[in-house]
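User: Hey, my collaborator sent me this sequence without any context and asked if I could get a structure. I don't really work with proteins. Can you help?
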Amino acid sequence: MNTLRENVADYLVMRRAMGFKAEGLAKLLMSFVGFCEARGVDHVTNDVALEWATAQIKVPVHDALFARRMDAVRLFARHQQALDPATQVPPETMCNRRYRAREPHIYSDTEIHALLAATDTLSPQFKAVTWRTLIGLLAATGMRPGEACRVSVDDVDLDNGMIQVLDTKFGKSRLVFLHPTTVTHVRRYLRVRHDQLPAATRACPMLFVNGRRTRLDPDKLGVTFRQLLAAAGIPIIAGRRPPRLHDLRHTFAVTTMLAWYDDGHDVQARLPLLSTWLGHVDPASTYWYLHAVPELLDQAVRRLETRNSVTVAGAQS
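Assistant: No problem. I've predicted the 3D structure and written it out in structure-token form, which is a compact way to encode the shape of the chain:
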């Protein structure tokens, strides 16, 4: 009889064979497996699923994380129950989905400049240049950190000012266009990369490489980024999620929408454009920012009130 770990591994192979991206699900399920193994549990039960979903493992548990953990176990348990009748499927009632989206950290221009300056504290010098270029690219394009780590040198077309982002989070691909200043910085990084990498490692296809001259690991970016936050003097506010590298993507989306509001554009009509740029499945994912960021919601309410007052005035005249 297979172990729980083997059953989970088989399930993940099946998911990937069906075309699903399973990286996030795999991390959660393997965490669950380790939790079960430490307690001598060999199949899913409601009690152990709830105990794991509420356990503080590396990070504090908030409502959204609790929901993701329960969803992961529930997906696997529904599959496994047909093979192992002892498997319990945690009911939906065990997970309260009425949680408020956690407000992302929106970096100010001052904070972004401080992060870029903080890269000078990194060593060796090539690491500093790599991180300065990475942060600048994420801030200027709104790309996901994982996407930037997977970009190859061949995906970068600086003559036409664009990067090809392939096989993203939802299996989509898109073109990201670069501002001329961003092109300049990426071109400079490529020159440094060429000059400082030994000839034997220049064949590495990835744009961003680490000290071992292999591609940056998106799962390990947080360690260095926390160092940069401290060096940049960006505080971690008690009771709120610490600022993340991924929040540069949120910052790009929010500042873009705020600029549209300031310029008098119809933001609702433009959301599909931003959704396509960010690689969201649909505009509903982008619309989330209006609710997660109070400043955007205030702008939307003001725009609606202004529109309604104009309509009323027109009707009265």
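In plain terms: The mean pLDDT is 83. You can pass these tokens on to your collaborator as they are.
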